[in-house]
Amino acid sequence: MAAPVMQTCHERRVDSVLNGHRGRVNSVQWVHRQDGGPERHLVSGGSDHALYLWDTQRDAVRRSVACVGHSGAVCAVDAVYLEDDAQILVASAASDSTVRLWLVQGAGAQCLHTVSFGNGFMMDVSLVLLPGSRVPILACGGDDSRVHLYVLLSGALTKVASLQGHEDWVRGLEWASVDQELLLASCSQDGLLRVWRLRGVAVSDGGSEDDGSVIRMKEDVFEVKERAFAVSLEAVLAGHENWVYGVHWQPPRREGGRLHQPLSLLSASMDKTVILWAPEEGSGVWVEQVRVGEVGGNTLGFYGCQMGPDGASILAHAFHGALHLWTKRPGGEGKWSPGVVISGHFNAVQDLSWDPEGEFLLSVGSDQTTRLLTPWRPRDGTQTSWHEISRPQIHGYDMQCLAMVGRFTFVSGADEKVLRVFRAPRNFVENFARISGAPLDKLLASSDTDLPEGASTPALGLSNKAVFQGDLAVKVQEQLSCDSAQNQETFFNPLKLSEPPPEDHLLQNTLWPEIQKLYGHGFEMYCLASDSLNTVVASACKASKAEYATVMLWSSASWRQLQALAFHTLTVTQLAFSPDATLLLAVSRDRTWSLWRRSPPSPGDPEPQFSLYTHTDKDSAVHTRIIWSCDWSPDSRYFATSSRDKKVMVWGPCALKDSGKPPPPAPQ
Known about the structure:
Number of strands: 49
Distance between the termini: 48 Å
Oligomer: single chain
Helix content: under 10%
Protein name: Elongator complex protein 2
Keywords: Cytoplasm, Nucleus, Repeat, tRNA processing, WD repeat
Family: Belongs to the WD repeat ELP2 family.
Pathway: tRNA modification; 5-methoxycarbonylmethyl-2-thiouridine-tRNA biosynthesis
Strand content: over 45%
Largest sheet: 5 strands, antiparallel
Shape: elongated
Structural class: mainly beta
Subcellular location: Cytoplasm; Nucleus
Number of helices: 5
C-alpha cells in the first residue's frame, strides 16, 4: 500500500474499512491539497483491473467514482487537483503495459489519454503541476531503467524527456515542489536513489553554447506553452545494499502562512532498512541522516514507507504485511525508537480459539503463522486496545486448525499430517502479565513450574526448540567467541516488555516451544477441538474415503492416541465438544453429523472413551449440501449446524439416558 494513514495522537486504530475491490489492492494514494489542508479524496488501484476514487467527506468514506479501462492489474496510482477540488487528474499504471490519464469530474471519469509501452511495464507514476504554468507533468518509471516525463497539452500526453542513469528497474517516484522548482526522487533495483531538479529557464538558454570553462550537469530542456524547463541530475544517493522499493518526501507543512517543503527524503529497501536523507547545511551535499530497520529475522525487507507531517515519525510496510513504526525521541539528539502498531494476519484466517479465561485470543492463518492477541492496558490510563503480543508458531506450511488445552497450551494443525503441541514459556507469561495487567502469581500458578525461558527455531527446521536459563548463558559465551553473527539472528533473546513488541521481536523472541508431535492421520489436517476438562483433543484430516475420515482422540495428559472414531465417509469439517464435556459433535462433507457420548470412567481404564450416541443418515439428513460448522448451546442441550445449502439448523434436546437407544435430536 502506498499511502498509509499516520495518526499523531497516542491512539492508533482502524478508522475505516473500504470495501469495493474484488482483488488485491496494490496501491493507494491521497490526493493532496495545494493549500496543505486535510485530504478528502483517496485513489486506489487493484488486481481486479479497477481504479476507484473515494470521498471522505462528512466523517464517512464512500466510493464515488470508478475508472474502468485497464485490462491488467493496476499497480500504481497518483492524482492531483486541477483548478479546484471539482476536477481531479488521476494517473494509473497497469500490467497491461499502459499508463492511463483520467479526468474525474463530479460522478464521472473520462480517460484522456493512454500511453502504451509495448512489452514494457511502468512500476510507478507521479503527477504534479509545473510551477507557474499549471500544466500537469507526469513521471513514469519502469523496467527499462528510465524515468519518462510527459506533459498534458490539449488533452493528450506529450513526451518531453527520458531520464537515464538507473541500471535496473525503477520502482518508485515522487515529486516535490521547492521554491518554484520541482525535485523528482526516483529509486531503483540498482540500490540507488536519484534526485532530479526541474527548473524554468529562459528560452534562449536551451540553445546556448557551453564554453567549457564551467563544469555543468547535462540538462534536458523542453518547452511548454512558450516557457522552457530544464531537467538535470541533482544527486545520487548510495547507502542501501539491496533493491530500493519506496521513496517519499516529507509532506509539506505550513510555516508563516505559506506552505514549506522540507528537504527530507525517505527510502525503503529490501535490505531491511529505511534511510532518511537530507542535504547538509552549507555544502548542500545529500547525506544519510537516520537509518532504522530490522536486524536478523526471516523477513524480506521493506516494500514502502511514509513520513509523518512533522518529520518525527516513520512508517514502513514489509513483505509479510507488517507495519513498522519509528518515532523520534523528544530531545533525543536524533535518536529513534520503535513504536506500537496494529498487526495481524496477511492471508486468510483459518481458525481461532479463546483462552479459557477470555483474556487472550489465538488464531492461525494461511500466512503460516499462529498469533496471540490480547488487550493492552497502558499504564498512563489511555484507551485499552487489542494488539498482537506473541507469535507462538511460524511454520513452513499453511495453518488450518487450532485448539486451546488449558490456558497456556495449544494444539495446531497445518497442511501436513502431523499435529504439533505448544506450551507457553516463562518469558511470555511474565510479559503477558505486564502488558495485560493480569496478576503474575495467578498466571504462574496455572502453568508448569519448570517452564523454559523461550524458544528458538534452528535453521532449516520447523520445530521450535525450548530454551532454558542455562542455555542462555552458554549461548552468550558462544556468541562472544564466534566471529559470525548468523547464530544471533535465530536464537531467542529474553525480553522485558511493558507494551506490545515490534515486528522483529515477534518474529524471533516470542515463539513457544514445541513439546509434542502427534502422528496418525493420513492426509493434511483439517479441524481440531478440545473438551472443557482439558483432557481430550479430537482431530480430523482431509478425506475422500471412509478409512481416512476417522476422528482421532488424544489424551492431553500423555499425548497418546485414545480412539479412532469411524462413521463418516468424507472429510469431517468441524468438531465440537459440549460445554459439559459429555458429548462430541462431528459434521462432515458427506452432509451428515454424528454425536458421540463419553462413557463413564472405569477403575481399569481411567482414560475417557467415546461411543456413537446418534447420527443422521441419507434418509434423516436435513442438509442437502456440505455441513461447514457446528456449535453448542451453553447448557449442552442443543446444538446448531450450518451448511452450504444456506440453512442453519438447531437440534435437540440432547437427553442422556443410562440405558436404551436414545431418540435422535430433532431439528427445532
